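Exercise 7b. Backbone tokens:
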């Protein structure tokens, strides 16, 4: 039997169109779109006051949506929707056509003892594992999501590239990572970004009260496993769901897509999405970039930058450039000068990332002195340049460290509390 399509991969306009089509003359377009908006709120905010609160596993829906994103339980959100939101015949049709189960499942969770980041191993329907990282910072929560199981780009300094590509994720599996992590925070009564640093939430409040004010995931970065533009259709659908004002309501400025620069997909992305773009650059010299990033041989940096310059001229768009500093490879003053010249005229922000070392690489992380010297040279040339000291390094959750062994399958693990003990 063919499995049902997941509701978490359907954008709101498509959901409205489906409702209109499935009910034909009994549902006009405007009404169908209103019902689709109500269903989106139920799925992604869980704040519809008419929900039946007696349903097992449901939570108090009277809380402001900014405080409780995505609190619908594994029991279908649709099962709690009354007819004033979704008519009975539409609800029955939805349940026959779509699955309301979260399309990925948390199998492992490891918390960093250093900074509180949590790395999740998520199992897909075919029992493959992808990794997702929750990064707590003062006043905000960032979720780093994956778009593929593995990666085909083969960047020499990246763990994920060693896996090769097993398959791309569907849009629902990308959105499902946020769904699963949000539910994990509810189940573990995480009351603030800072609370994630603690093994156990210490509070006099009851779990029920803590669950009412679970923090909102405020930023999403597509910097996990895989090359996002190599999975363009699913990427664009997932972004549409993330930024939909009737659902999760993330600002496009809070959604960032990292790419090695695939063409012509880059052009399509810039035309169709307002999300932020971060280009993985890593060397200003073509031959050297091709050595550390084989993709450069097929999609040369000059052609990628030409696309960015054209869009910048047309829209005034600003771009981010990621530059992993590798000791004695690309961290010299000459590299900094060449990088500044390369980006001249662009509204650019450069993120400098000291290499996150991992097993199997001969590359080494530079000391902080040359890192800050590199930054100073860029700033002296008028560039905005920041040093990003990646979080989650002690649990192999930092940039370039995500990997699941090829062919590895999901498995049942001990209780969540046991898996959350800090990595030493």
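Sequence design result:
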């Amino acid at each position: 039997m063919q499995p049902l399509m997941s509701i978490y991969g359907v954008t709101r306009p498509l959901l409205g169109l489906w409702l209109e089509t499935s009910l034909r003359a009994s549902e006009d377009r405007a009404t169908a779109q209103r019902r689709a908006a109500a269903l989106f709120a139920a799925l992604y905010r869980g704040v519809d006051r008419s929900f039946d609160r007696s349903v097992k596993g449901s939570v108090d829906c009277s809380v402001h949506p900014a405080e409780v994103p995505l609190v619908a339980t594994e029991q279908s959100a649709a099962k709690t929707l009354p007819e004033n939101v979704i008519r009975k015949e539409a609800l029955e049709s939805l349940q026959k056509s779509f699955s309301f189960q979260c399309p990925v499942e948390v199998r492992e969770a490891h918390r960093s003892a250093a900074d509180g980041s949590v790395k999740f191993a998520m199992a897909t329907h075919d029992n493959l594992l992808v990794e997702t990282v929750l990064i707590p910072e003062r006043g905000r929560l960032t979720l780093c999501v994956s778009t593929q199981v593995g990666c085909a780009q083969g960047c020499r300094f990246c763990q994920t590239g060693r896996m090769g590509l097993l398959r791309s994720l569907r849009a629902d599996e990308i959105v499902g990572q946020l769904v699963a992590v949000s539910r994990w925070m509810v189940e573990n009564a995480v009351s603030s970004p800072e609370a994630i640093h603690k093994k156990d939430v210490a509070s006099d409040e009851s779990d029920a009260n803590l669950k009412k004010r679970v923090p909102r995931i405020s930023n999403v970065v597509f910097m996990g496993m895989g090359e996002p533009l190599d999975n363009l259709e699913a990427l664009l659908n997932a972004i549409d769901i993330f930024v939909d004002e009737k659902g999760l309501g993330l600002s496009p400025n809070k959604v960032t897509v990292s790419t090695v620069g695939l063409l012509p997909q880059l052009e399509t992305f810039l035309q169709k999405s307002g999300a932020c773009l971060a280009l993985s650059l890593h060397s200003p010299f073509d031959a050297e970039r091709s050595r550390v990033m084989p993709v450069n041989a097929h999609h040369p940096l000059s052609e990628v930058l030409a696309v960015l310059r054209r869009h910048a001229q047309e829209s005034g768009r600003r771009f981010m450039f990621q530059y992993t500093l590798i000791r004695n490879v690309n961290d010299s003053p000459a590299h900094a000068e060449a990088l500044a010249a390369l980006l001249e005229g662009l509204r650019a922000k450069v993120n400098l990332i000291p290499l996150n070392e991992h097993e199997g690489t001969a590359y080494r992380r530079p000391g902080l002195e040359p890192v800050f010297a590199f930054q100073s040279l860029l700033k002296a040339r008028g560039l905005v340049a920041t040093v990003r000291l990646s979080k989650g390094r002690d649990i192999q959750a930092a940039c370039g460290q995500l990997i699941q062994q090829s062919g590895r399958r999901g498995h049942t693990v001990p209780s969540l509390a046991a898996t959350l003990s800090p990595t030493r």
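Instructor comment: Confidence is low (pLDDT under 50) at residues 47-76, 199-205, 405-424. The first strand starts at residue 5 and ends at 6.
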